[in-house]
Design goal:
single chain; 10-stranded mixed sheet; 4-stranded mixed sheet; binds guanosine-5'-diphosphate; binds 6-O-phosphoryl inosine monophosphate; binds magnesium ion
Length: 428
């Protein structure tokens, strides 16, 4: 068996989509296991740019099937739009399937997400307003509508009646907004069921059997560890577990079947949305990273906050995920800096120095970064494919990260294109 898990180690947008696309060329299955269309995964295929939100980033190159596992939340409208866009560009989509157990994002989830964020004002989380949180809430409350329910008119109507009664009471009484019409939603979602019926299948048995057969199965995480519902900067997080452990519950695969645990981190940090960010740089350096790295949200277009690499947070992320293979992306964006800072510890509000990540989000926002400073490099590195050809100072930067984390960097990405990689050890 050969399994590969790709997860983000910072606040998302590390370049997971690019790495998944590259690895998917040799994969028989590419499986998403959490999140929904809050993700924005950019893949360049030559001149062509694709931004995948709900579809696995393996959709372009995977030689077998692409699956949205049970842990994913699926907006059928967004799914069909994405499928149609890919089809229009002459690519196949017949290999994409949705787990019957996956929960469905309904219009009231999107509205609830929007109203709640508006009501929070300055204290908002800065969600993508795609209904992700409310959909997971209904799943845990055991009132959610699953993909399988779209195929059964009686069950769909019964569940919808119950849900709309609750949601309309909240909208009308709490937010002073109009209620929703049951029949309209029922008819729309029945139609989605009709269109999607051949794509809604049982997936966990097939995934496990394919692993047992020895196929290459790749699990693609969306978001990242610092946005994890348990281990991120709660409550400024998403509502799922974007961890290697999340694969077990989000795809139905036991831990002893997961082998290559690939963590993706940028050579610096970015964050979109609100919440603490110890190494955020409000000066020249942050602006340069944003400009050179084109740091704008792939989904919302919001500018991403930028700052130096935070090794304290990264160590927390690699520990929780048990990362075996590290990927550092966007090293090219750091070309041109005289000095490169790297955060190795935090100074707490009472002057102590700590090198572990705290569970107190309030305290974290008071911490200051303690930096080591390394020499930078001026050369353009976007055409380099071998580690030895990198400027010595760039090599030193990568080695510094490896030493701190005790994990080898197996791939360094030096540009958005499929070919712009320094692969130090072939995985398969
Ligand atoms: P994801 O959400 O983790 O898949 O990442 P996004 O696609 O949201 O954001 C990463 C952005 O950086 C995309 O625009 C990629 O095309 C781009 N990118 C990925 N790797 C590299 C790299 O090594 N260098 C540069 N300059 N851009 C990269
Ligand atoms: P990818 O897969 C970056 C952030 C939102 C917000 C918080 C909660 O492209 O890395 P949500 O809509 O999930 O309830 O929002 O999480 N967020 C992301 N930030 N990349 C993402 O995905 C994100 N998905 C959600 O900005 O702060
Ligand atoms: Mg993204």
């Amino acid at each position: 068996m050969s399994t590969f898990v790709v997860v983000g180690l910072q606040w998302g947008d590390e370049g997971k989509g690019k790495i998944t696309d590259v690895l998917s060329a040799k994969s028989d299955y590419v499986v998403r296991f959490q999140g929904g269309n809050n993700a924005g995964h950019t893949v360049y295929a030559g001149e062509d740019k694709f931004v995948l939100q709900l579809l696995p980033s393996g959709v372009l190159q995977c030689r077998g099937k692409c699956i949205l596992g049970n842990g994913v939340v699926v907006d059928p409208n967004a799914f069909l739009n994405e499928i149609n866009k890919i089809k229009e560009r002459g690519l196949r989509t017949d290999h994409v399937y949705i787990s019957r157990r996956a929960h469905i994002i309904m219009p009231y989830h999107i509205l609830y997400d929007t109203y709640r964020e508006e009501a929070l004002g300055e204290k908002s989380i800065g969600t993508t307003k795609k209904g992700i949180g409310p959909c997971y809430e209904d799943k845990v409350a055991r009132i959610g509508i699953r993909a399988i329910d779209l195929l059964n008119p009686e069950i769909l109507r019964e569940k919808l009646e119950k849900n709309i009664r609750i949601k309309n009471a909240i909208f009308e009484k709490l937010y002073d907004k109009p209620g929703l019409d049951l029949d309209e939603i029922y008819n729309d979602y029945l139609k989605y069921g009709e269109i999607l019926k051949d794509k809604i299948v049982d997936t966990e048995l097939e995934i496990n059997q394919s692993i047992d057969r020895g196929d290459n199965v790749l699990f693609e995480g969306a978001q990242a560890l610092m946005l994890d519902i348990d281990f991120g900067t709660y409550p400024y997080v998403t509502s799922s577990s974007p961890t290697t452990g999340g694969v077990c519950v989000g795809a139905g695969v036991p831990p002893n079947k997961l082998e290559n645990l690939i963590g993706v981190a940028k050579a610096y940090c970015t964050r979109v949305g609100n919440g603490p960010f110890v190494t955020e740089d409000f000066g020249e350096a942050g602006r340069t990273m944003a400009e050179v790295g084109h740091e704008f949200g792939a989904v919302t277009g919001r500018p991403r906050r930028c700052g130096w690499l935070d090794l304290v947070a990264l160590k927390h992320a690699t520990m929780i995920n048990g990362i075996t293979h590290l990927v550092i992306t966007k090293l090219d964006v750091l070309s041109g800096f005289d000095k490169i800072k790297i955060c190795t510890a935090y100074k707490t509000e009472d002057g102590k120095e700590i090198d572990y990540f705290t569970s107190s989000t309030t305290k974290l926002s008071l911490y200051e970064p303690i930096y080591d400073e390394l020499d930078g490099w001026k050369e353009d590195i976007t055409g380099i494919n071998s580690f030895d050809e990198l400027p010595k100072t760039a090599q030193r930067y990568i080695k510094y990260i490896e030493d701190y984390l005790g994990i080898e960097v197996y791939l360094v990405s030096v540009g958005p294109e499929r070919s712009q990689n320094i692969i130090r050890k072939e995985l398969f």
